[in-house]
Amino acid sequence: MYAFYDHLGKVKIMDRTGIYSNINDIPRLYGIDEFIPRALVEVGNVYVKYANGVSVLAMEVVGVAATNR
Question: CB–CB of 3/11 below 8 Å?
């Protein structure tokens, strides 16, 4: 699961099933009583995308080509 700020500055939560506005929506999706996050890691330069019904994270990569002289 990933938490992020949308373009309006609101916190959203994303997992493999979709994007949610409230952490309290998560337990019923998985048939559990409660969801308690235990740890977090901040990752920079990662973009959230939701395409064709699939939630994904995208990271910008700059390619470099090298040649032997």
Answer: yes
Q: Is residue 64 part of a domain?
A: no
Quote the tokens at residue 47: 């973009």
CA torsion 27→33→39→44, rounded to 10°? 10
- Domain holding 10, by residue range, is 2-59
The total domain count for the chain is 1
Instruction: Write out pLDDT tens, residues 12-62.
Output: 888 877 788 888 888 888 888 988 888 888 877 777 776 666 666 666 666
Half-sphere exposure of 43 (CA within 13 A, CB side): 13
Quick one: tokens of 53?
């019904």
The confidence score (pLDDT) of residue 62 equals 62
In a domain, 45, yes or no: yes
